[in-house]
Specification:
The chain has 430 residues and is α+β, with helices and mostly antiparallel strands. It contains eight helices and twelve strands. It has a five-stranded antiparallel beta sheet with strand order 2-1-5-4-3.
């Protein structure tokens, strides 16, 4: 890429210099030749004014001093030089002037300008001014050399600028390519630092956002796989234990063992369905109203708890702001918490929503004996016996995916889980 930038810059500079210098060189040549002719005409006219048109060889005086490099001559009507340092015999330009026509021309390497002298419309002589063509070309070439030196300097500046520009462009592009390669190899920490070039920085920002998003997705999938492995292992282990016990005991109730294995298989199927559904959740949230979610949870669990002889109490503050999240994810989190209270708690189950200063707090509380402070129930592999569904560990990860947090807010005297969900930005009640 550096070679291409240099090639383009060099070609563009050379073309620009040629298009500029060639007309300028021609203009300089024309200007210097015009100046030389104008100087010759001026000196010839001044001499013609000082010389008496009816001159004779006896009364001639010296001609005036001409400009640098100019030679003045005076010719009589026969074309013989009578004064000056020009050619002894008249040349073609002088002969033309003797015919009554003034003008200029180029003869034998000299630029010549002539002015005729006349008395009563009769040409009596000619004043001739001449300068060597080489003198004019020396001045032209000197200017051309100066122009060429300026062109070389401009070309050198162009090359240096092109190199600097190529380094400024190719450096960030090389860094961007390396970051892309690292991302392709699975390094999701690869980042592109700002380069100061808007277009490259836009591509770098897109790469950084992609790397961050992919890293989050991969990390989420890892957590999902770890939690799912734990949730799937529990019913599989139970099923295996039941079947092995039935095989090892000749007097075992095979029908009961099969029935228990089928129940464990059903549990396993539900768990798999929930994990698949969770992996397909949309990443963006929508406005969520706490009252709607609590009503939905109440309709799902009131009958289940009532069948176990346990009441379900639902309470929420009036005027709660809207939250943002995925409704189905919130329903799964509440289901895990209520199921946990149903399986491991006693007494009434309370489902509450309240304002928590920038978040909505969903509390699920039962009247059980609490949880030991030494037990972290959100760690992988921690179980309080035969639980099914997503489990607390996976529910915690799901809460974080919604931008919220699931925590055990109270251990004693009763167990209380709290799920915090951020309120919707710009909500007037938030």
């Amino acid at each position: 890429m550096t070679r291409r930038i240099l090639s383009v810059a060099l070609t563009s500079t050379v073309i620009a210099l040629v298009l500029f210098l060639v007309p300028l060189a021609i203009a300089v040549l024309t200007l210097f030749q015009g100046d030389a002719r104008a100087a010759l005409q001026r000196d010839a006219l001044r001499a013609a004014v000082l010389v008496d048109p009816a001159f004779s060889a006896a009364d001639l005086t010296e001609l005036p001093h001409p400009g640098p490099g100019i030679v003045l001559s005076l010719y009589d009507a026969t074309g013989r030089r009578v004064l000056g340092a020009g050619p002894r015999a008249s040349d073609s330009v002088v002969r033309t002037a003797l015919g009554g026509h003034s003008g200029d021309g180029q003869v034998d390497g000299w630029l010549v300008s002539v002015v005729p002298l006349s008395v009563s419309e009769k040409v009596t002589g000619v004043v001739r001014a001449a300068v060597p063509v080489a003198t004019v070309w020396q001045r032209v070439i000197a200017v051309w050399i100066t122009m060429l030196a300026a062109a070389v300097a401009a070309l050198a500046i162009g090359i240096v600028s092109a190199r600097a520009l190529s380094r400024r462009i190719t450096g960030p592009m090389r860094t961007l390519a390396l970051a892309s390669q690292s991302l392709g190899l699975g390094d999701f920490t690869a980042r592109m630092a700002p380069s100061g070039l808007a277009e490259i920085d836009q591509a770098g920002s897109a790469l950084n956002a992609t790397a961050k998003r992919l890293g989050q997705l991969v990390e989420r999938e890892r957590h999902m796989a770890a939690n799912a492995s734990h949730q799937l292992r529990t019913p599989l282990t139970g099923m295996r234990a039941v079947l092995e016990a039935a095989l090892s005991d000749p007097n075992a109730d095979v029908s009961n063992a099969i029935r228990v294995a089928i129940e464990r298989a059903d549990t396993l199927e539900v768990t798999i369905d929930e994990i698949i559904a969770l992996s397909r959740e949309p990443a963006h949230g929508i406005p969520i109203h706490a009252s709607t979610q609590l009503d939905a949870a109440e309709s799902r669990w009131r009958g289940v708890l009532a069948a176990a002889g346990r009441p379900l109490r639902v309470d929420f503050e009036a005027g709660l702001p809207s939250a943002t999240g995925v409704p189905s994810a919130l329903q799964r989190i509440l289901d895990v918490l209520i199921e946990n209270a149903c399986r491991h708690g006693v007494g009434a189950v309370t489902l509450r929503a309240r304002d928590a200063h920038g978040s909505i707090a969903f509390d699920v509380e039962d009247e059980g004996r609490g949880i030991s402070p030494s037990q972290d129930i959100f760690l992988h592999g921690v179980s309080r016996g035969g639980s099914s569904g997503l489990g607390l560990a996976l529910a915690s990860q799901l809460a974080e995916d919604q931008g919220g947090k699931l925590m055990l807010s109270q251990r004693h005297p009763h167990t209380r889980f709290t799920f915090l969900l951020p309120t919707l930005p710009g909500d007037p009640e938030a």
